[in-house]
Fold each of these.
Amino acid sequence: MTFGEHTLSFPIWVEFGNGKHERTGEVIDAKGWENALIVTDQGVRDAGIIDGVESSLEADGIEYEIYDDVRPNPTTAMVRDALETLNAGGFDVVVAVGGGSVIDTAKCATLLKTNSAPLSEYEVNTPDDVTAGSIENHTHPLITIPTTAGTGSEVDYWAVITAPDREFKMAIGQPPLYPDGPHLGADISLVDPELTASLPPRQTAATGFDAFSHALENHVAAGAPELVKPYTRHVMGLVPEYLPEAYETGEMEAREQLLFGSHMAGFCENYAGFGAIHSLAEVTGGMYPEIPHGEAIAAFTPSVMRYNLEEYPARYADVAEAMGVDVSSFSDTEAASAAVEAVEALIDEVDLPSRLAELGVDEGDLPAIAEKSLDTIEIHDNPRDADAADLLDVARDAY
Ligand SMILES: [Fe+2]
């Protein structure tokens, strides 16, 4: 993503490490805030993952209430519901503890707390929408505490919210368009590997692969700045190394590496765009809300790579090298193909569904998926131009 004349600065305080969630109360107190709304979901709450956050708030004398009604693939109605709770209390800060659904819901509630238009006014479908500056006021203070190693949402300026009437996942977002300008996103993020310890294997695989796809799409995106590439390369090496172990054994060192990787990819999202993988996967998720984001991502990734590498083999040769493939005797085209094979092997190793058919997608919906993908912001950053016919070919290849 390029931002024209805009200088992009994304101010956020981040702390990474085991036990960091226990600093929530101290961090809030240091800001002079006294009353917090914890936004989470029932799964996170039932697993006891917010217990440490609660005791930290109690230890520092912070009053709080809990909103735990967020569900997967959050909708506009869920954002309104969370906003109602936020408006009802005198909360100085929102503390989002959860995966991407929780964090995105909390982000949008903090946006609507201080900006009066309906959420759809802040939807972005084109690069011009991103730089239009629709978010006029600073969002309500937000602390993000991720419990999955995948979305990077704790640190990026995007949120994805489904508009059920359109069966469409809206991308909501705005970078700070001038230093300290209003934008969507957290003020503080406490990134704590301990909180990902109980994530079940299937979600570990899906969210971890999502993190890989963020680094991959950021790396090859049209106009991706060089500054992101050391980080995207690192994440593309780290996920294949640690995801199988995190999936199979849940070992903490592997989980810590994955969380650091997903967080790093989240930072990169603020400087580079996504592409057709996210475009097609978000559209599919809007039409099939029961499909987890990371699983749709896995199904589309190899097919989109095959489409893109025909014009940009060198970029995908770089992906192969980052993933640890020995490409020394390969041409760029051979190395790019090896990158697709390495990605397919990773998907297979962590037992993710690799075909759209396995996810329950109706073959008759593929033309609509291709057509709707042209309305997403992500398609503008795909390295290779794609029209509806091209995207239909890709979707058929993924089926
Ligand atoms: Fe994603």
Amino acid sequence: MTSRTDLVEELMGRFPHVPREAVLKEDLLRGGLAFDDAALTDNEHGDVKPKSYFIFSFDHRTLPELGTAALRRPPEEIVLTGGPYGLRRTVVSVRTNPSSPYRVGTDSDGRLRLFLDGRPIADVGLPPMPAYYRHTLANGKSVMEVAPTIQWGYLIYLTAFRVCQYFGAKEECQYCDINHNWRQHKQAGRPYTGVKPVDEVLEALEIINRHDVDRASQAYTLTGGSITSQVNGLAEADFYGQYAQAIEERFPGRWIGKVVAQALPRADVQRFHDYGIRIYHPNYEVWDKRLFELYCPGKERYVGREEWHRRILDSAEVFGPRNVIPNFVAGVEMAAPHGFTSVDEAIASTTEGLDYFMSRGITPRFTTWCPEPTTPLGRTNPQGAPLEYHVRLLEAYRATMDAHGLSSPPGYGPSGPGRAVFSVSSFMDTLPSTES
Ligand code: SF4
């Protein structure tokens, strides 16, 4: 049997132009990592910033199956350096998997390291508790609950609506655990506000603004589940738009405002722009037509793939193509039983989608699929997609970008190995170095 170390080193050897950091990061994102108890946090009372569960669980087990990591949360992210691969600084989002061959623990010299198959492969740094997490709102809620930050403090993640109105097997996206994640936090008795009141969001942002003296936070993302009817009497654009309007009135231009929402009609998109939002993410999820219909049944029924794509192009006329950044979930193309069975086919399909958007000046981005166990695709594919797919996607992404003369998308912080902070994919670690 080939070990995971063999697999990683084989791919590092076959794809020398993909940074080694990116190969490891993709493997950690697709398969997760385990933590020794000593490497867990003391939740909101310690010196390390805990995992906030900002929208999905991004774990390979349910909370009750995580053992101590369910009581003392793992860190939000880790940063890797050094080791036998000479890693430059690499920020990785934490996806917990007690069965992973990757483990964070203390080495014989007392330092925290990442082990693969029992061998230390990197020094591990943990995110310091930000000063703003030590303050609470007037009603006692924590800043982490209302306005967590990710990407090493760069991005404030505002999940305003923590469930999705695409509900059940016939509507939910087949790789998404937003509704389950909400249920499991409620069942565990954790604070997990379903609909965040606008004034709580403003109060949390006020605290961040006051205590983030180095101005590490540069952007916010307004997001949450899709709204097919109404929430508090508001349709999707009005619901998310109210936060954008309030934030930009109170803190004009303080952060780069981004919205992740469905591909909405042009008039709705225009309202986001008018409120001061600068970047729009109408995520297209997966390119292949058959897979989109199977994996996103709600979106297919309510909007439809062709209309979804047409709206993405329309929104580029409102925001400018550089500022429309639709996400796709990298890896689901290869999920059994319906996905592609060869990496070649999956990469060809994904590249066709990249080419479609990039030829129009729109730069998609991706998050690495985490096969959460309560989702249909996670249940049937607990190993996720092959690491080779993820490595070759990085190669294809960069090549397609170069072919269309595009550079790293705005609103993601610095790019390049050793510099990137975007933590849920390594595409920013793979692009040429830039400051912001
Ligand atoms: S639209 Fe799909 S991916 Fe988005 S929150 Fe709903 S179920 Fe999840």
